[in-house]
Design goal:
Chain lengths: 121, 508
């Protein structure tokens, strides 16, 4: 009986997951990690299904690393106070992100702190 | 008659014969509801010409932009995303399409649904434009309308100029594009004429006009689950009506609207508060990789009947799906491929940040979902056709039981996923019962698919009224998922490992 209930509950939960759909899962991101980037905005794309923030970060031996960070959709960000004009090329930002599991220079955008000290997440 | 309306009518009558040789008739002062219906362009065009004659009055900058677009297309540097990715054609290009469009008229709003590329635009009556500071530019424009003396005037601004063209040939558009449409009905409501005034000071040296003429085709049912790479309608089927369309006035008043439909009309999103007295299942599945949910999550699906179990093949699919995701392998789903994956009775696609609009007409009910620009249109009355072509959104018919709208849907394809993880078969049958209770929209849906579930089950969603939503165009720039870009040619989507038997039952 317990097993049956467990299976049923699992099914119910996976149906609920419909509501949690956010265009795609975050399977490729390691959300157990919080990586902080100090960088400069190279590009800010306010697009569906995901916004993208491209940031240049000074790496080791003065080499610049370009990070591609996937954000939420404009609709989701809009509800949190973000706007399409929030970031401009050249802006200094502090970014929190969950990195890609494969180690490449990308991740899931968690928050941005703009030059005026405001934090958007 | 107001002076401006007189000018509009004079313009319409004087311009009409210039373009297509059509007989100009006097605009008929029919009720606004007479615009409701399915319309097919009588002379689809890929290259527009001004009603005034000659070539479009391109400015110097416009000529340079036009040449750059044409050169870019030749070299492959310039993409026509409406053709390559099935993104919305934008305005007024969408009006020139050979595929049908449907106009829905509901209190305070006209909604234009274009079959091609799953595009729709809402036009609000007698309301100022939205604040462009908070309303993002769109492919289809942000329009307001007024209706006087038989002439429907739509004023549209805030276009995504860099992403759309005036026609297939690539006439340029800037974000300063301003369209003024004058629509009126002719021939006792059987013909719709739309004269469009183009103003774009960047690309054109003066205002100029396009004219589109549509025939009423209420015998045609829109296919709203248009997907790139899948077979579309044979356009030859649109050449002759199977039967004469109903006169507009008669069709619009055949089923008088009562109070209940007016209550159902509107924008809705998932209510975060639980239903009192009912067990609910809310948050656990949404943790982890899903988007952040508010406190308590969304108790959107509530099983009120006995809990179902998956049949072994579906359970196995789901186990493999989740195992792959747990290993960091993002799985391809209809949702993340920008496909129309909205399953009736399972809530608003996209989650709590998104909403839908219900549009109730005497003969149709439309569900407009923001995410992935999905559209379902159910016919009120009638029966399912005896032979159905399975589709993403199925075939829906509806009827009223008192104040409850009952929507019956069958005819699904076998490629979709319920809850993003559970496949189901073409045997799926969903019956929704929609009503408004204490100001909330309540959707009780019974799901029956013996190939997938061991028994029918019922789910309940509750929605709260919300504000109009903005246009959502999936995969504008983000080329992740399965939306193809490199080849420029979309490919059909199939669930990995799916096969179909002669009976249509998917097995693995």
């Amino acid at each position: 009986m317990i097993k049956k209930l467990s299976l049923s509950l699992t099914l119910a939960l996976c149906l609920v997951a419909q509501m949690a759909h956010a265009h795609h899962s975050g399977a490729m991101f390691d959300r157990s990690k919080d990586v902080v980037l100090n960088g400069v905005v190279k590009e800010w794309q306010w697009n569906n299904p995901h916004c993208w923030l491209i940031v240049e970060v000074l790496g080791e031996e003065t080499k610049t690393v370009v990070w591609s960070l996937e954000g939420q959709s404009p609709q989701v960000f809009r509800g949190k106070g973000w706007t399409r004009d929030l970031l401009r090329v050249g802006d200094k930002v502090i970014v929190h992100m969950a990195p890609l599991r494969d180690g490449s220079a990308g991740g899931s955008l968690v928050s941005v702190q703009t030059a005026d000290g405001r934090v958007y997440n | 008659m107001r002076t401006s309306t007189r000018i509009c009518r004079t313009l319409l009558l004087s311009l009409a014969p210039l373009c297509c040789g059509a007989q100009a008739s006097a605009a008929q002062d029919l009720p606004l509801q007479s615009f409701s219906g399915v319309w097919v362009n009588t002379l689809p065009t890929t290259q527009v010409r001004p009603v005034e004659g000659g070539a479009p009055p391109l400015s110097l900058q416009g000529k340079a932009n036009h040449e750059a677009i044409r050169a870019g297309r030749r070299s492959g540097q310039q993409s026509d995303d409406a053709r390559h990715l099935c993104l919305p054609e934008g305005m007024p290009r969408a009006l020139g399409s050979a595929y049908p469009m449907q106009i829905l008229v509901t209190p305070g709003q006209l909604t234009f649904v274009h079959e091609a590329n799953r595009a729709y635009r809402m036009v609000h009556l007698d309301r100022p434009h939205a604040d462009p500071a908070v309303w993002d530019p769109t492919y289809m424009g942000e329009g307001t309308a007024r209706y006087n003396d038989g002439v429907l005037t739509i004023d549209s601004v805030n276009y995504k100029g860099a992403r759309i063209f005036l026609d297939d040939a690539g006439l340029p558009v800037s974000d300063q594009l301003h369209l003024t449409e004058q629509l009126h009905l002719l021939n006792n409501g059987q013909t719709l004429e739309d004269v469009v005034t183009i103003e774009d000071p960047v690309n054109y040296s003066r205002a100029w006009h396009m004219r589109f003429v549509f025939a009423r085709r209420d015998d045609v049912q829109l296919r709203t689950d248009w997907v790139c790479g899948e077979p579309h309608r044979q356009l030859s089927s649109l050449r002759k009506p199977a039967k004469p369309s109903l006169p507009a006035a008669a069709s619009a008043t055949s089923t008088p609207l009562g109070a209940a439909p007016l209550l159902l009309n509107g924008y809705w999103r998932g209510d975060r508060r639980p239903l009192a007295g009912t067990a609910h299942i809310a948050t656990e599945a949404a943790k982890g990789d899903g988007p952040p949910l508010g406190p308590g999550g969304i108790p959107s699906i509530i099983l009120t009947a006995a809990l179902p179990q998956l049949q072994p093949w579906a359970a196995d699919f789901r186990r493999r799906f989740l195992a792959a995701e747990a290993q960091g392998q993002q799985q391809r789903t209809p949702g993340n491929l920008c496909l129309p994956y909205a399953i009736p009775g399972t809530g608003v696609p996209g989650g709590p940040a998104y909403s839908m609009q219900l549009l109730i007409e005497p003969r149709h009910v439309a569900f407009l979902y923001q995410e992935n620009r999905q559209i379902r249109i159910a016919r009120i009355g009638g029966e399912h056709p005896p032979r159905l072509t399975p589709g993403w959104l199925g075939d829906s018919i509806a009827h009223w039981e008192g104040n409850t709208l009952v929507v019956d849907t069958i005819g699904f394809n076998d490629s979709n996923l319920m809850g993003d993880t559970v496949p189901f078969t073409q045997a799926m049958h969903i019956v929704q019962r929609l009503s408004v209770e204490d100001g909330k929209l309540v959707d009780r849906a019974v799901f029956t698919d013996p190939n997938t579930f061991n028994q029918p089950f019922e789910a309940v969603h509750r929605f709260e009224a919300t504000e109009p939503f903005q246009e959502y165009v999936c995969a504008e720039d983000n080329r992740e998922g399965g939306v193809p870009t490199d080849s420029g040619k979309p490919t059909p989507y199939r669930l990995p490992g799916a096969t179909t038997t002669a009976e249509g039952l998917r097995t693995r």
